[in-house]
Write a structure and sequence with these properties.
There is one protein chain. The chain is an all-alpha fold. 80% of the residues lie in helices and 2% in strands. It has 13 helices and two strands, in the order ααααβααααβααααα. It has a two-stranded parallel sheet. Helix 2 packs antiparallel against helix 6, helix 6 packs across helix 8 and helix 10 packs parallel to helix 13. The radius of gyration is 23 Å and the shape is flat.
Length: 253
């Protein structure tokens, strides 16, 4: 009898836990997740500001120094605003695990209990993919693209880059690469939900390649063909890896 009562209480608790949230409750949950994410960004930006001189001189300016490009500031207080922009962007990068965690926590009520157990693994994998994308942009894409830009053209014309334009390229390319490296993670998640199938990805492989080429053209700065090619190749490789991940995740399911 006591077992029956205990089972009844457990089933009521499960029904309560799986109760659908109202629209206003979803909005409230979203608001708090955004607040938690912003707090993480602020903390990351403060940490970045403490080490801002090292970040600028030894990390962000290194690709320009290695490529032989010359930089100049053309605006009053340009460097001050630039440093603030860098601190915010680095703060976002530092807090990426927290941002992903808040995002997955927000959508977790829509998942089954067996799918929620993957939450921590998904957060870690998402963060690693994003950081790998940033590392790829910093160590591969940017040095080649900047070297091409610095050395291209007539010897009679000196290539000098405005510092704000340079930093804009650096930050946009790294963030873009970080986002596109999330493709395997998206493939894994959609396959687990049964939305994406490897057969579908193989069938529309040619269409995907065309979309990848177009996306690489939009994600790379200016009309630099070197950057576009450098981004297109890993995107195609990531697409093929995503097919494999989709296949493996469906087998495990």
């Amino acid at each position: 009898m006591s077992d029956l009562v205990l089972n009844d209480n457990n089933s009521e608790k499960e029904i309560d836990d799986e109760r659908e949230m109202t629209f206003l409750e979803h909005l409230e949950e979203l608001r708090w997740r955004i607040i938690y994410s912003l707090i993480g960004v602020v903390v990351g930006a403060i940490i970045a500001w403490i080490f801002i001189d090292y970040l600028v001189d030894y990390i962000l300016l290194k690709p320009a120094k290695d490529s032989g490009a010359e930089l100049q500031n053309l605006r009053p207080f340009g460097q001050l605003f630039l440093y603030m922009q860098i601190a915010i962007m680095v703060g976002i990068i530092i807090s990426i695990p927290n941002i992903f965690y808040q995002f997955w926590q927000f959508i977790s009520p829509a998942l089954h209990k067996r799918e929620r157990k993957y939450l921590l693994s998904i957060v870690i994998f998402s963060s690693l993919c994003f950081l790998l994308g940033i590392a790829f942009a910093y160590f591969v894409m940017l040095p080649l693209a900047l070297k091409f830009a610095a050395q291209f053209g007539s010897a009679a014309i000196k290539n000098q880059f405005a510092i704000d334009e340079y930093m804009s390229i650096i930050i946009s390319v790294m963030l873009a690469a970080g986002l596109v490296f999330e493709l395997p993670m998206i493939s894994f998640f959609l396959s687990k939900l049964g939305i994406l199938k490897p057969s579908f990805m193989r069938r529309y492989r040619r269409h995907a390649y065309v979309i990848i080429i177009i996306a690489a053209a939009f994600l790379t700065p200016g009309t630099d063909p070197v950057s576009q090619i450098i981004l297109t190749v890993p995107l195609i490789i990531l697409y093929e890896i995503s097919i494999l991940i989709s296949k493996l995740s469906q087998k495990k399911s």
